[in-house]
């Protein structure tokens, strides 16, 4: 800004990390809609639910789906619902409330949005303006949510088994030779060639990696990944209450974002640390 | 040959037929019209297929559809300007463009003559979430009459016709529409503007943003609008619009004539929009809206570079401090108006954990790490520059970042109470970068320091 750049206004900036490290940024694949219960589902009392696996930092948000007949295919939802129930059992991610489905077939009633933690580039800080003051609070984690469609795999697996051939769906990608095949039976029908390759690779190394039965031939990276995956599957889901933006609890939490003190804080680091701490410089 | 002549003769004779019959049959049940259109005037004098005119008169829900019908009338005129030049029916069906789009507040205001005029609901929506979204206002018709209106966006017809309306492939759907009219004579042809598909129903697909903004952006003043316009587009079209503008910047005066009505208004507001947004964001006092329980404050997202400055609270416990390796004598930090005099050495940290902390201090450290206080001030300049001045001579520039097109929630995950509390939607992003002048000056000073820094390896790093 050259010339006279007049100062128009000054806003004091507060900083607090009262809620750290629990302040997250969640990103949803929604363009124009907020994340809310569809009105038809809200009318029948359904709410958004959430569950968390705190150690592996995985969250799931279950959003009820709009089941009006004009936009929802009930039969398909029954098929997929059954697939999802089986998928849940397999992956240890059952929903606690199964009672609703007694006496009738399970159906899909919600979209499960699973989180993926993304690395933060730099330091993310949330700012809120109130009464002419800007309050900053650091954001510890950033999660991106996307709907899980793992029940589709189960569904295709089931239909493939019953029908025996591909019917109208493609095969999935060929199985990862290093991944312990969860359902060897159907895959072996289809891809004996691939299985043959697997056997060859497996001969090299056996049984390394902290007592877990890896098929061998794994690099350390893959072993770590598999360990992580197993750890995640083993951890139980912790059900959380999802408080939307207008609930009292959310308002209360919101208030904590604001700094309460007017004390001036001292700054320990210098602007030069920004350059000096660049890795590799 | 003779057949051709005969048919062309017929065509010639009935050249005015379709339009006449179209006009006259406009009052008839719509089922008649397309069949007429197909039978007559299909063949031009040359024997080629004429562009079919499919009148798009609704049969049901006259109010809404009348509304929809009128705006498409101006739409084809603009679309023909743009060289699409299709028949009126097709242009209407598609809204004049090959894709649907969702309106955003600035373009909505400015393209009133286009399909955006179709309804107040559109003006209130924000495809880009610029509206204060921390108040969780739902977008799609959700008002008090929501339940009743839920299905209102859909025709009172069975599923097949529903697909017809919401079709993404306009070309395909046009044919289907015609066929559907044949097969279901009591179904009307309904005009759906592709941009407004989103408004039709809760489950309606997202309407894509229109690319006609690319043309308009050319009319803007050329000074440093590139980035801002990219942000305006926000999405895939951003790159193309930037290129278009680079190329067409010289053509600005020429192009202005084309879209004058739209362009001038646009350039005025969209030019200033980015700057003003920052200024608005920071320099305004919140206007309280109706809802009492809804939070009025907007949430902003700031991206700071690593490492975030370490702030300490002047009066935290001294006992815990002594073991802390990071304790140093802080420099004078004259910052904002509410300064306090205490400059005791203390430690605190926010995002960057201290390099080494004595284990015994961890508990106290964890507590005392919670800092709370004033760390600086945000200075807004007349030119629109925003600077964040913090202690130790840290000056950072604040600029608007690419605005997210998706939904972002700031969430508090409460492990103790097992709650996931949504604090609000974060719609505006800002990037904080060090002010280069200040940075270089400080580096300079650091290079030629008084003796106290000799012991550190930092000095050598600088000269490397």
TrEMBL record, chain A:
Disordered: annotated segments: 82-112, 151-196
One Gene Ontology cellular component annotation held by this UniProt entry: RNA polymerase III complex
Pfam families registered for this protein in UniProt: RPC5
Comp. bias (Acidic residues): 166-179
Top-level taxon: Eukaryota
Biological process, per Gene Ontology: tRNA transcription by RNA polymerase III
Name assigned to this protein: DNA-directed RNA polymerase III subunit Rpc5
Lineage: Eukaryota, Fungi, Dikarya, Basidiomycota, Agaricomycotina
TrEMBL record, chain B:
Pfam families: RNA_pol_Rpc4
Ranges of biased composition (kind: Basic and acidic residues): 61-71, 162-175, 207-216, 226-235, 335-352
Location, primary (coarse class): nucleus
Domain of life of the organism encoding this protein: Eukaryota
Subcellular location: Nucleus
One GO biological process term: tRNA transcription by RNA polymerase III
A GO CC annotation given for this chain: RNA polymerase III complex
Bias type Low complexity, positions: 143-154
GO MF, any single term: DNA binding
Acidic residues compositional bias, start-end: 176-193, 267-276
Region entry Disordered, spans: 1-276, 311-366
Keyword annotations of the record: DNA-directed RNA polymerase, Nucleus, Transcription
InterPro entries attached to this UniProt entry: RPC4
Designated name of the protein: RNA polymerase III RPC4-domain-containing protein
Source organism per UniProt: Trametes coccinea (strain BRFM310)
